[in-house]
Amino acid sequence: MCQRCPWLDTSKPDYVEYHDKEWGVPVYDDQTLFEFLILESAQAGLSWYTILRRREGYRSAFASFDVQQVAQFTEQDQLRLQNDAGIIRNKLKIAATINNAQRFIAVQQEFGSFSQYLWDFVDHKVQVGSWQSLEQYPTTSSVSDALSKDLKKRGFKFIGTTIMYAYLQATGLINDHSQDCYRRQQLLDDYQRQGIEFQLVNAQ
C-alpha cells in the first residue's frame, strides 16, 4: 500500500485520485490555471473536498472554464448561477469569478500568458517542501503573500494569501507532498525527465 500525504482522507476514492494524479503537478496551461483559480476562490471558508465534489457542476456552470466566455457573463448569468445547485451559490463569489475572469485576461494581455505571470513568482522553479507531519504544513508563504498582494492590486477578488497558497500547491508551483508520500519522489523524478527546475525550500 502506497504511503500518502497525512491530510488526505483515503476513504474517499475521488479525493485519492485527485491527490495521486493532479495535486502538485506543475501546470502551465492557462485554461487549467483559470479552472483552479475559480475552484480555489470558491473554497474560501469551506473544505477543498466540498469544492472537488462540485467540480463538474462548476465546469457546467462556468462554460468549461473558458475565461473569454466567463468574462462576458451578464447580470442575468449571475442570477442563473445563484440558483445553480451544482455550485456554491454565494452571490459575492459568483460575482468575483466573473470579475476575476476579466482581470485574468488583462494579465494575459500584459504578460503573454497567465502562466508566465504566475511562474515568475517562483522564478520558474518548483518550490519543494520537506514536511513530515500535518502540523508542519504551512498555510501561507512569502510567495503566496506576494502573489495575493499583486492580484489584489490588479483587482482580483477572493484571493487572500491562504487561498493563493492552496492554489500554488494545487497547480504544482509548490510541491508539498510529505516526505514519506510516494508522489513526492515521483514528481521529483518527473522534473528531471522534463527539465523542470526546482528548489528545496525547507530542507532539514
Automatic annotation (TrEMBL):
EC number assigned by the record: 3.2.2.20
Print the keywords alphabetically: Glycosidase, Hydrolase
Q: What class of enzyme is it?
A: hydrolase
- Quote the SUPFAM superfamilies the UniProt record gives: DNA-glycosylase
Output the InterPro entries linked to this UniProt entry: Adenine_glyco (IPR005019), DNA-3mA_glycosylase (IPR052891), DNA_glycosylase (IPR011257)
Which GO MF terms does the UniProt record name?
Answer: DNA-3-methyladenine glycosylase activity
Record's keyword annotation contains Transport: no
Q: Tell me the domain of life.
A: Bacteria
Question: Is Transcription regulation found in the keyword set?
Answer: no
Q: Which PANTHER family match?
A: DNA-3-METHYLADENINE GLYCOSYLASE 1, DNA-3-METHYLADENINE GLYCOSYLASE I
Protein name, per record: DNA-3-methyladenine glycosylase 1
Instruction: Cite the source lineage.
Output: Bacteria, Pseudomonadati, Pseudomonadota, Gammaproteobacteria, Vibrionales
